[in-house]
Design goal:
38% helix, 5 helices, alpha+beta, 102 residues
């Protein structure tokens, strides 16, 4: 059985950045033994977020989600490790938005 290392692209949402949680979130991933491959502080555009959340576009909350996600900077990261997607979601809940990238 293969033990493929998975990568995930979590974003620390605007409220997590504003509340100064970036260091704590990085610490949690590192404590689990995950490897940080890339990180960028960025201000996502409306178009980028509409594409990112395209699967939710028919939901009533979609406009509010896009407004919220473009309301401030996010920290975009790429982490690698075994079970990183599931563990990242368990560790961080509402502070991040995670999607698997392979």
């Amino acid at each position: 059985m293969s033990h493929k290392r998975i990568r995930t692209y979590p974003q620390i949402k605007p409220d997590g950045v504003q509340r100064g949680l970036v260091g704590e979130i990085i610490k949690r991933f590192e404590a689990k033994g995950y490897k940080l491959l890339a990180m960028k502080l960025t201000q996502p555009s409306k178009e980028h977020m509409e594409t990112h959340y395209e699967d939710l576009k028919d939901k009533k909350f979609f406009p509010g989600l896009i407004q919220y996600m473009t309301s401030g900077p996010v920290v975009a990261m790429v982490w690698s490790g075994k079970n990183v997607v599931a563990e990242g979601r368990k560790m961080l809940g509402k502070f991040i938005d995670t999607m698997s990238i392979g």
